[in-house]
């Protein structure tokens, strides 16, 4: 694939503690299943230039069979709290081939997930199955289209080799593209295995790569921590506003860039319920929808612990600074959440009672098990109370309050409508649609269902299409369960 412009600052600027050479193991029969042309263009890659006889195929490159000349494949080390317990992990099945510099000068990690074992694989085979990789492709691209910061997916290639899980599955490699793969768990790894000099090296690298404006600040490490915290407050608010449940918010799955990372058991909530959990391994509901802001703050506290010596040589003062920053998280989150909610309700400027106004709507939705996305969608189209299913005195009273609230703002009905359309997706990746797409692709090799779904999800704020097959929640109820897919 022509257009590679790879650099390797992670490997070059950080000590060996942070990475380990890792060569993808060639696969038998690479076959391209999904390829993201717009993303390839953004990255400056030209897929056509590669599809010439005698040269490697695109699939071969993206399976790791023939790496671009300038690649320098490594696996990154990291630790993490998994469901509250500290462990040393590292990339057990993802190999970073380099940092692609785009034509506009941006830097993105390009990683092959499922490309074979690394130093950190422990007992794992370093491989991935097709279903989970397509799932990551679909959901991460949907998140991107929703305007939520996220790692992205360039391609999925099947390997022509089986992977052995509970059953025999088709092997696949996902090409993941990320601002970086520096995690809260990377800082924890540095603190646990390299002490202060390693955490300083990683903090300096993170500052330069993601927060260059802060490099010159008087207390750069405190500023870095505050900036990471601010991005997380914004990110988690964005998740909550569309009903996204990450499902496995371990500290190794939280990126310091502020992107959503690690699409395993994630799914979107249908009926509004803060207790919504999809992941089969989250028996304690630690990562339920309603817990996500609290868990983010908990993870940030683990990040602060790892960075403490950088904040201040005096341990007490360092703790004070970390605590002061952490204590601001709930308010910061709430501000982002309320800003977003106002948009969803068609409100422009804040008023003191906004939290109560939305709180009462959510309470009604919870009581009625109303679909989260479609309630806001009906509100956007002005059909919420007209909908026969919603004939309900509480809702009518609530809608009067909203009307009264809107009458105090100067914007026209047209402006209100535009604002709401921008904040309320008409479609999200519905669980049954995702499952149908995966089933067709994995059992019949039919990618047309997935491609149609991807097409629909690419413009989630388009309210001018009528797509009941994509906007209705699954009928029949029953709890949707997701699996990690490792
Ligand atoms: P995840 O649940 O994807 O966040 O992965 C948790 C850890 O397990 C990470 O260190 C992964 O690299 C590792 N891992 C997951 N699946 C495999 C596999 N098939 N082979 C080796 N390591 C794996
Ligand atoms: Mg992970």
Provide a compact summary of the structure.
The protein has 486 residues and is of the alpha+beta class.
Question: Could you describe the 3D structure shown?
Answer:
This protein has a domain at 6-178. It is 44% helix and 14% strand. It contains 16 helices and 13 strands. It has helices at 9-13, 37-43, 58-62, 130-145, 184-210, 220-242, 292-311, 315-327, 329-345, 354-368, 372-381, 393-407, 413-423, 431-444, 448-457, 468-471; strands at 6-7, 19-21, 31-35, 74-76, 79-82, 85-88, 94-101, 107-113, 128-129, 152-164, 168-178, 244-245, 267-268. The strands form 4 sheets. Strands 1, 3, 7, 8, 9, 10 and 11 form a 7-stranded antiparallel sheet that branches. The chain has a two-stranded antiparallel ribbon with strand order 2-4. A two-stranded antiparallel sheet has the order 5-6. The structure holds adenosine monophosphate and magnesium ion. Adenosine monophosphate binds next to loops. The site of magnesium ion has 3 residues, from loops.
Mean pLDDT across every amino acid position: 95
Question: Would you tell me the structural class of the helices and strands?
Answer: alpha+beta
Total helices: the number is: 16
**Rounded radius of gyration (Å):** 23 Å
- Structure summary, number of beta strands: 13
The ligands bound in this entry are:
adenosine monophosphate, magnesium ion
Q: Tell me about the biggest sheet?
A: 7 strands, antiparallel
Unreliable segments of 5+ consecutive residues: none
The succession of helices and strands, N to C, reads: EHEEHHEEEEEEHEEHHEEHHHHHHHHHH
Helical content (DSSP H or I, runs of 4+)? 40-55%
The portion of residues forming beta strands comes to 5-15%
What overall form do the CA principal axes indicate? globular
N-to-C CA distance: 29 Å
């Amino acid at each position: 694939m022509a257009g590679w412009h790879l650099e390797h600052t992670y490997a070059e600027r950080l000590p060996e503690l942070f990475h380990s050479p890792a060569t993808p193991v060639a696969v038998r029969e690479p076959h391209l299943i999904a390829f993201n042309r717009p993303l390839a263009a953004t990255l400056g890659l030209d897929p056509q230039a590669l599809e010439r006889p005698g040269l490697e195929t695109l699939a071969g490159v993206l399976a790791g069979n023939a790496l671009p000349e300038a690649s320098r494949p490594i696996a990154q080390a990291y630790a993490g709290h998994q469901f509250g317990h500290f462990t040393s992990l590292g990339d057990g099945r993802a190999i970073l081939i380099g940092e692609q510099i785009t034509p506009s000068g941006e830097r993105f990690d390009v990683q092959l997930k499922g490309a074979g074992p690394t130093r950190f694989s422990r007992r794992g085979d370093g491989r991935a199955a097709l279903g989970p990789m397509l799932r990551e492709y679909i959901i991460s691209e949907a998140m991107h289209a929703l305007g939520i910061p996220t790692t992205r997916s360039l391609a999925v290639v099947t390997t022509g080799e089986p992977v052995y899980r509970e059953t025999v599955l088709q092997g696949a490699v996902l090409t993941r593209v990320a601002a970086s793969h520096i995690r809260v768990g990377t800082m924890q790894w540095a603190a646990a295995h390299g002490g202060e000099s390693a955490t300083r090296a990683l903090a300096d690298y993170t500052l330069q790569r993601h927060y260059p404006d802060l490099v010159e600040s008087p207390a750069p490490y405190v500023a870095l921590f505050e900036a990471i915290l601010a991005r997380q407050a914004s990110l988690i608010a964005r998740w909550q506003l569309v009903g996204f449940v990450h499902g496995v918010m371990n500290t190794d799955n939280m990126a310091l860039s502020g992107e959503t990372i690690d699409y395993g058991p994630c799914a979107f909530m249908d009926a509004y319920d803060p207790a919504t959990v999809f992941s089969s391994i989250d028996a304690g509901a630690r990562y339920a929808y309603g817990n996500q802001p609290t868990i983010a703050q908990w993870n940030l506290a683990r990040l602060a612990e790892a960075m403490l010596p950088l904040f201040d040589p005096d341990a007490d003062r360092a703790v004070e600074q970390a605590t002061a920053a952490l204590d601001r998280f709930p308010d910061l989150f709430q501000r982002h959440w309320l800003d977003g909610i106002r948009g969803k309700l068609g409100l422009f400027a804040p008023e003191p009672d906004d939290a109560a106004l939305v709180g009462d709507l959510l309470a009604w939705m919870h009581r009625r098990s109303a679909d989260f996305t479609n309630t806001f969608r009906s509100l956007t189209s002005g059909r919420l109370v007209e909908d026969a299913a919603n004939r309900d005195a509480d809702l009518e009273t609530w809608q009067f309050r909203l009307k009264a609230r809107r009458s105090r703002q100067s914007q026209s009905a047209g402006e209100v409508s535009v604002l709401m359309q921008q904040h309320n997706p008409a479609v999200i990746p519905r669980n049954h649609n995702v499952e149908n797409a995966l089933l067709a692709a994995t059992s019949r090799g039919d990618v047309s269902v997935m491609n149609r779904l991807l097409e629909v999800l690419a413009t989630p704020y388009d309210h001018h299409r009528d797509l009941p097959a994509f906007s209705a929640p699954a009928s029949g109820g029953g709890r949707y369960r997701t699996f990690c897919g490792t």
